[in-house]
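Quick start: load a record and inspect it. Here is Nucleoside diphosphate kinase:
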Amino acid sequence: MSRTFVMIKPDGVKRNLIGEIVARFERKGFKIEAAKLMQIDRSLAERHYAEHKERPFFGDLVNFITSGPVFAMVLEGNDAVQNARSLIGKTNPTEAAPGTIRGDYATEVSSNIIHGSDSDESAAREIKLFFE
Ligand code: RTP
Ligand code: MG
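Running the structure step on this input writes:
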C-alpha cells in the first residue's frame, strides 16, 4: 500500500462535484486517510506548483488554484500514485479518455478539475505541504 495526494480544484468544488469524484476513488478501492475543504493562499500555491515556476502559464495557474476553495485528500491504496493518475486521466481534458475524471467533467487544460501527485516523492512532499 502507498499514499497519494489528490485535490479537487476550485472548478470541481464550484460545480458541486466533490461527492461524485470522491465516490470514484472509493469505488476503485482507495481509503481516504485525510480530507479537508480549504482555501490555498498564494504562498502555498507557489510552493505546490514550484516545478512550473518558469512556465508561461504559472501566473494563471496560481490565480486559478487560489480562486476558491479546494478539497484536499490523502488517499491510500495499491500503487496509489499510478492508480489515482489513471482515474484522473490526461492533463489536457481534450485528450483524456471518457471514463476518466478529466475526460468526463472537463474541456480545457486551464480548469481540469483535479490534481494528483505524479510520483511517490511528489506525494510525500505534497502531503507534508497540505497536511502538516
Ligand atoms: P496537476 O499537477 O494539476 O495534477 O496536473 P498534471 O500533473 O496532469 O499536469 P502538470 O504538467 O503538472 O501541470 C499542472 C497544471 O498546469 C496547467 N497546465 N496548463 N496551458 C498549458 O499548456 C498548461 N499545461 C499545464 C494544468 O491545469 C495542469 O493541471
Ligand atoms: Mg502535476
